[in-house]
Amino acid sequence: MHPLDKPAVQFGLAVLTVAVLPLFLTSGILATEILIFAMVVAACNLLLGYTGLLSFGQGIFFGVGTYAAGICLTRWQVPVPLVLAGSAILGAAIATLVGWLSIRRQGVYFVMLTLAFSQLFYFMAYTFSGITGGDNGLLGVPRPSLGGAELNAPWSYYTYVAVCFLAIFAILVMVTQSTFGRTLIAIRENEGRAAAIGFPTRLFKIEAFAISGAVTAFGGALHAMLIGVAPLSNIEHHTSELILIMTIIGGSSSLFGSVLGAGFYLLLADALSAVWPRWLLLLGLVLVAVALFLQRGLWGLVERLYDAVLRREPSPTKPAEEH
């Protein structure tokens, strides 16, 4: 294990990120969005990086969490803690269903199934406009209150999200370092061998889906309260693509790479959009460069810099073959 991949270091870097963002960013909304997407991308990383499942269904769970928060807070006035817990439970339930059906196929067929489910849930949200608001979404989603005070100020809500982010990140670190997490890595490396020694690989994959779906829906609920709207765009397949792009940019070999990926994408998008209306073209060129020259993402670059500064031998990407 690389020294930077140790659980204490990963969590320490997450705490440092939470402390540093207010010092360098003037927008509390942008800083809060970075933390929300960081936890969502980390949940995607649990599937892609640790289980080897390339899923285009993450937008489903993000949108479900968004709508759950929008409906509960605008129509039923449910307490925010119950909304967040309910969103996570609903996200886990839907992810379990999607995962149970999707993992029946492997490779490109698995990818196409998750994409098909993404489109299915999008059209359901679009069709049942009486519940979801259709194209307009659900407007007027309020932010939570703490001690009777509404957290309407951007930085006060940032503090609320920061606590949630650190709690979620700590849970994900414990999951990946547990026997369960090590088993997911074994399934990623050689599913046939893992099954041969007695691991119920399908069950482990479904559990990974459930955890990922719960965290993603939790983030979706926080995002609805951030922008005050539960929009239809949150459940589009483009959201799944966005989450996957952030995961790949950051690097799927580390949970903190997810934080780097989310921060890099959102900060770059914010900067480029102020320079040129067609900023997505510039962003595309950056993504091509990352794909060509940083196959292990930004986290791989950080590890190489760490090794160069301390003059360490870089960690091998693959274990040495035994003779």
Task: Walk me through this protein's architecture.
- Helix content is 73%, strand content 2%.
- With 323 residues, the protein is mainly alpha-helical.
- The chain has a single domain, classed as ABC transporter involved in vitamin B12 uptake, BtuC (Orthogonal Bundle).
- The chain has a two-stranded antiparallel sheet with strand order 1-4.
What is this entry, summarized?
With 323 residues, the chain is an all-alpha fold.
Give me the CATH fold name: ABC transporter involved in vitamin B12 uptake, BtuC
**Helicity, in percent?**
over 70%
Strand order of the largest sheet: 1-4
Q: Total strand count, please?
A: 4
> How many distinct domains?
1
Question: In the CATH hierarchy, what is the architecture at level 2?
Answer: Orthogonal Bundle
Order of helices and strands: HHHHHHEEEHHHHEHHHH
Strand content: under 5%
Tally the helices: what do you get? 14
Radius of gyration: 19 Å
Classify the secondary structure makeup into a structural class.
mainly alpha
CATH class: Mainly Alpha
Average the pLDDT over all residues and give the rounded result. 90
Instruction: Please mark out the parts with pLDDT under 50 across 5 or more consecutive residues, or reply none.
Output: 318-323
Choose one word for the global shape. Answer: globular
User: Strand count, sense and closure of the main sheet?
Assistant: 2 strands, antiparallel
